[in-house]
């Protein structure tokens, strides 16, 4: 493996890297970086010596990818923003695949992902953060009775509300929906809490949620979705779909 070149100047090689550099110092650039990340070509190292140079892999491809060790002893899939970065960090002749970011991250989303390991500009995502990035609901296991505090956010997330309304309101099987800010006391964590009244299959609701969250600005929070049968008391927070 080549010496890590983190001390070398990071000069962007493409539009995605230019956005990465801007997003590192300007939070307002992060939604644009996230959108570009999903629609750009990303590169991952493969131990398969049968691959010569770059191969553009379709979404259904199943292949082993190289992991890198993290400081806490766990491992993350190594992903790069340009093919040249693979050789810069790991040396010429390293085998790699190229894949659309949405497909590559979706394929490895159950484990952490480290973008540009060994370089001065990168990002580490855990599985929950990847789920949010990809517009997937975050699974939350509650092992014992937990009180979740719900309220209306002091700063109204208009973009998120609009995206949720556009995704869920046309679906006649969604009878009502509310968005609140939830506090999970045991985790000392705040998250968005989407309370939906519907008898639609969860797979359909998850598809609608993924559509709404694609490129949405979540202000660093996960989104939890609760699905209950139609009827009952109104939910907490902001009305996304008025009861019908």
Description:
The chain is of the alpha+beta class. The protein has 2 domains: 15-133, Trna Endonuclease, Chain: A, domain 1, CATH 3.40.1350; 149-241, Alpha-Beta Plaits. 27% of the residues lie in helices and 25% in strands. The protein is built from 7 helices and 12 strands. Strands 1, 2, 3, 4, 5, 6 and 7 form a 7-stranded mixed β-sheet that branches. Strands 8, 9, 10, 11 and 12 form a 5-stranded mixed β-sheet that branches. A hairpin with a 4-residue loop joins strand 9 (174-184) and strand 10 (189-198). The longest helix has 12 residues, at 202-213.
Q: Which helices and strands appear, and what pairs or packs with what?
A:
Elements: H1 15-25, H2 30-39, E1 41-45, E2 54-56, E3 67-69, E4 75-80, H3 83-90, E5 96-100, H4 101-107, E6 113-115, E7 123-125, H5 127-133, E8 149-151, H6 158-168, E9 174-184, E10 189-198, H7 202-213, E11 223-228, E12 238-241
Parallel strand pairs: 2-5, 4-6, 10-11
Antiparallel strand pairs: 1-4, 1-5, 3-4, 6-7, 8-9, 9-10, 9-12
What gyration radius follows from the Cα positions, in whole Å?
20 Å
Average of pLDDT: 83
At the third CATH level, what is the topology name of the largest domain? Trna Endonuclease, Chain: A, domain 1
Please bin the fraction of helical residues.
25-40%
> What ranges have pLDDT less than 50 throughout 5 or more consecutive residues?
49-54
Compute the number of strand runs.
Answer: 12
- Structural class comes to alpha+beta
- Under the CATH scheme, the architecture of the largest domain is 3-Layer(aba) Sandwich
Strand content: 25-35%
Number of helices: 7
Molecular shape: elongated
> Any idea of the CATH class of the largest domain?
Alpha Beta
Describe the biggest sheet?
7 strands, mixed
The arrangement of helices and strands along the chain is HHEEEEHEHEEHEHEEHEE
Number of spatially distinct domains: 2
Distance between the termini: 61 Å
């Amino acid at each position: 493996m080549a010496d890590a070149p983190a001390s070398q100047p990071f000069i962007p090689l493409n539009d995605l890297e230019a956005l990465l550099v801007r997003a590192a110092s300007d939070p307002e650039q992060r939604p644009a970086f996230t959108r570009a990340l999903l629609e750009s070509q990303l590169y991952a190292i493969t131990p398969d010596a049968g691959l010569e140079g770059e191969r553009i892999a379709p979404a259904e491809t199943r292949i082993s990818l190289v992991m890198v060790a993290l400081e806490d002893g766990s491992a993350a899939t190594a992903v790069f923003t340009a093919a040249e970065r693979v050789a810069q960090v790991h040396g010429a002749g390293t085998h790699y695949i190229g894949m659309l970011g949405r497909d590559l991250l979706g394929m490895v989303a159950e484990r952490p992902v480290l973008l540009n390991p060994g370089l001065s500009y990168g990002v580490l995502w855990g599985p929950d953060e990847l789920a949010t990035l990809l517009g997937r609901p975050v699974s939350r296991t509650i092992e014992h009775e937990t009180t979740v505090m719900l309220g209306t956010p002091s700063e109204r997330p208009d973009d998120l509300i609009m995206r949720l309304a556009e995704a869920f309101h046309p679906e006649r099987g969604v009878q009502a929906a509310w968005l609140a800010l939830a506090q999970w006391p045991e985790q000392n964590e705040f998250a968005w809490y989407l309370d939906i009244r519907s008898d639609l299959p969860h797979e359909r609701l998850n598809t609608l949620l993924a559509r709404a969250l694609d490129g949405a600005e979540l202000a660093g929070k996960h989104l939890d979705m609760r699905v209950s049968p139609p009827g009952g008391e109104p939910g907490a927070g902001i009305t996304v779909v008025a009861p019908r």
